[in-house]
Amino acid sequence: MQAIGLGKQVMSGDHPLMILQDVGFEAARGESVAIVGASGSGKSTLLGLLAGLDRPSSGTVCLNGIDLSGLDEDARARLRGELAGFVFQSFLLLPALTALENVMLPLELRGAPDARKQAERVLQRVGLGERLQHLPKHLSGGEQQRVALARAFVTQPAILFADEPTGNLDGATGAEIIDLLLELNRAQGTTLILVTHDPVLAERCGRRIRLVSGRIEA
Amino acid sequence: MNHWRLAWTLLRRDWRAGEWRVLLLALVLAVGSVSTVGLFADRVYRALQQESHTLLGADIRLTSAHSISPDYRAEALRQGLRVSGMANFPSMLVASGGSLLVEVIAVESGYPLRGHLEIEDSAVHRAQGIPQSGSLWADERMMRRLGVQRGDTVQLGDLTLRVEARIVRDVDQSVGFASIAPRILINQDDLTATGLVQEGSRINYRLLAAGTPQRIEAWRSWAAPRLQNGEKLEDVRDARPEIRTALERASHFLGLAALTSAILAGVAIALAARRFIVRHLDTCAVMRCLGAGQSQVLRLFLYQFILLGLFGSLLGSLLGYAAQALLVEAIPQMRLSDLPLPSLSPLMQAVMEGLALLLGFAFLPLLQLVRVSPLRVIRRELGLPEMRAGMGYAFGLTVLVFLFVWQAGSVKLGMIVFAGLIVGLSVFGGAAWLLLRLLAKLPLPGHHALANLSRHGWSSALQIVALGLGGMALLVLTLVRADLLRGWQERLPPDAPNHFIVNIQPDQREPLRHFFQSSGLDEPELFPMVRGRLVEINGKPVRSEDYPEPRARGLIEREFNLSWFDGLPEGNGLVQGAWWGRDAVEVLSVEEAIAKTLGLRIGDLLTYEVAGSRFSARVVNLRKVQWDSMRVNFFVVGPSALLRDYPASYITSFYLPPEKQAAADRLLTEFPSLLVIDTGAVIGQVRNIMDQIAQTLSAVFLFTLASGLAVLYAAMLAAQDERLHQAAILRTLGADSRYLRRLHLTEFAVLGALSGVFAAAGAAILGNAVAEQVLEIAYAPGFLLWLTGVAGGLLIVITAGWLATRRVVRGTPLQVLRAE
Questions:
Q1: Tens of pLDDT along A7-37?
Q2: Which residue out of B290, B375, B816 would a mutagenesis test of the A interface target, given it has the greatest number of A Cβ atoms within 10 Å?
Q3: How would DSSP label each residue in B14-44?
Q4: ipTM of the complex as predicted
């Protein structure tokens, strides 16, 4: 993954507001990078740009050598489907779907033939083999985030974007989730881009990038 | 990837979570309502169509108001056609159990030339031949009403006839519900002996013919140019055009009535779609994040909607099928008519309408949904992309307009009805909104609940109007209808004439006067009646085909009953022109409505043909006639000097007190050739038909009410999340379940009571309009109307509301707040 001169400007009332300025860095295959910074420093905005969920005002992002700025929204979505996995602070499991169905969804969207089998296997791996048919509302926060991890890894993504994955969890549960995340990351050789304001979590990543007021702190 | 399969999978999963229920309910109700009417009308149409071949009992028929020249028959026989003659006319039939107005059909051997009759004598079988001389066949209704059995004797004019068989299936039995009088079949050889064929008798003569199409065509071309006034040729295409037209109108009207529930269903669908979309923002964003493109997500959701639409339409169709079957069962004449099963086309139409409605109200919101930014997964505050307010509804409304125009069969009518409904709904909605604001400002108990309702002003107003509309329709059909009917009947003085005597010959006048005196009845005034055909207006021949209106055509084709008066007839009023003086001869007075129908004006010269000779006279005035006064009235009258030398019969009306009913039976025995019409019985029959129509409409409007409930349900669900949130906060602050329950119940009670008030007010306004404009009577809605409206509204809304919000009170605050 390569980011060059990324900037993002939004309109706040009548005035332009720079959220990100000239952000550039690279992450090699299998590397884990933590993006840290205070609230409002532009961490989540940067993650959205890196994952192709939003368009930068300036600069470019390349994933696996493909320049995202040349792609339209649908092409970026296809690329995300092929390369990326996501884990969010608020889990974002679909409430109407069981744990198993939530994990099957990305496979089904690709039309994978053995979605159920693959999803079951990954859920076993994250320790939820017994809870396949539970709806998210019947699972604890930690369990819900495990399901989200399973959903992220089931497609064996080249790169995983995680947005405050422990933000909604208590300390012990958060630590378990991080262990699991890093373990899966290592096992699958995934590049990990992780946004957090938790210094302990950041320490466990291979590299840290600190954002201050939209710029990388040297 | 197979999108349909994935859509199906996603639909099933979402269904389990209850996300689709309101949409499905609204759809089922809309399709159910439309298909009930469609299927019902289709069955009646098919009955008409099937029977149209046998309806005439022939391939072609010559109808005439006078006896038919033998030349027609001779020519038909020469062409190798089979022929048979018949005559029909209304008359009184007297049995030991009373008397009854019947339609007498006198037939010749060979009848019917096409189709067949089924009769029951010793057993039910297909009739061979016709009734023997001295006997008659009668339909079920006549036997039941007169209480006669096979083998009994009855009196028809001067003739005593034995009831030989019961007609199980007449040639046009399936449309039997459309004819008022029961039918009897007699042998034409007996016709003269009844003594009923006289000057002034309303006899229709018919010559039936059947054969190969070429021969029929040959005879038709021979006969057509020879037709005299009052004669016409009919083939299957012309069979019962008046019923066909009436049915077409009725089914358009019913169809539009059914669409009122489609409007409400549309509202419910729009509300439910909105909630669906808000609740699926995350799903959509996550799917986009997981690699699904906008078009893929759109397809997945669209297919789900289509699958749901098909499923809902199927359920709705089944409901419609069951409802129309129940409806037919509930209306005795329909049940007895043995209607054919409906075709599939009304179901297809209903399914298409259901899908159109669903996509009409859900498609634009759906487009909006798939445009949600995938960035929402990180930036939670990103909601629905901006869409101009009302765009989603505008598309749905356009679909509705199309449905209305389609159903009405006319762009103008469809648009008018639709616009009328929308304007009406908006006015009521605005009033409800204002009222809620006002209530919230008043220092009333339950202020909290009122403030809640007022805060959701438009949604609350929508619920009130939706329920009010269904309630109003039902109130009009039940309470208001009964009130109006009673008011109309009460308007007549208690001694208003309730019997007419028609067909009085000049030499019967004296004996009749004597009869009335000896029976202790007031001697009635006898009015002369000369039958004449309008042949020319201002010297130009009159042809029925020049008049587009069926009523005008009928007037031209029939003979007019003319009468003479030297002073303005009692109960009539002059509208235009002046009454004539003593010496006037060639002048006429015309009733204003008929003058309008025929386009007649003062000064027009009308030429009538009476018994072979002609006279002309000028219209000098127009009269207004109160037809429902039950007195004898005439469309066209002249001075005695003009008409008294023509052959005339006499007509009168009189009041027969119920305790003197025996006198009516004696009258018929002593004067068998008279036609005595009991208007009470006729009104009873008309009322019977009105009841059937009301029954059908009530069934349709039950769907409207149910759709109103669907709106209520959808609106409650839409507010559910907010309600849960509010309840959780209130409970955290110490409110107990009882407080919450009371809060909700108060809201529902206000909603229900206001719906009821609106339903009753709407019904009263409609009732008033009908009373003033149509019946010309005063109408004051009774206390019962308001009571029923409010009590019904309270009951329905409180029950529905309680069912929908049980969960709000049950869960713990933490459960609720965490689930968010």
A1: 998 887 788 888 899 998 999 888 999 999 8
A2: B290
A3: HHHTTTTHHHHHHHHHHHHHHHHHHHHHHHH
A4: 0.87
